Amino acid sequence: MEQTKALQAEIRQMCKEKNAVVLAHYYTTGDIQECADFVGDSLALARKAAETDADIIVMCGVHFMAETCKLLSPEKLVLAPDLAAGCSLADSCDAEDLWRWKQEHPDYMVVQYVNTTAATKALTDVVVTSGNARKVIDQLPKDAKILFGPDYNLGSYINSVTGRQMELWQGGCHVHERFSVEAIAKLKAENPDAVVMAHLECKAPVLAMAEVKGSTADMLKYAQSHPAQKYIVATEAGILHELQRTCPDSTFIPVPPEVTESSSADTDLAKGSCSCNECQYMKLNTLEKLRNCLRDEAPVVDVDPAIARDAVKPIERMLELS
Fold this sequence. Notes:
By secondary structure, the chain is of the alpha/beta class. It has 16 helices and twelve strands. Residues about 260-275 have low confidence and may be disordered.
């Protein structure tokens, strides 16, 4: 604990000296969230990146989020604690994949989930987050033919609630794909008074069991509006830190990942340790790496200017529509 507090104090001091701002996603560890200037979901972080007057932005999240910061603030120095912090969704549909898909559907507009690389965004008409996808899609022409990717589950949900028939890319989040109906049913049987909350990246059968469906920000808002309740939470376990911090009288139960013969969750359960469903990419961000990142002003996240010119347009369009 003393080492954690010392690192946090060192980070805050460097932020003051260097006019730096630390942005952290809800899925990072609690010690990082505690010393960040701002904690939020993808949409909130994008807005903050566009607004900040800091000289340095440190994005504690995954690589596409740091790229988004650079696209919205090209004049600023953008840093990431670990460049290896990628995203399974972004990896599922790269620029070449999207280019081929567009060639097969020449009269379609492209809507991409924000979990994509800058090069993929450069081929996109508008991006969305889980928090604003429905609102953005509802504002597009009713007769528009749309390619939606890379998250199949989010696209399928938006189709179901809007009546659209968007063509969907077959991508998925490695964390949210692991939640099972069986695990939720078991937790619900043990906690019949609990409200089930699920992220829109979850599979349709999981969403069908949830009373609250939405982004991490949607879950927070609901829990804050309904204090002293019990919740079963189907999203990356990092959100529990902010949920518990802002709703101290509520109980939050994380849904574990599906346990298979090959999964590491077997080992965790056998040892009696936490079986939370976590994103290993988000957890590459550590206090030590954050401190070193600020101290060394590296690793730096840059985007090729030729790509950036087109990649920023769908982000700006999203911010306009949301």
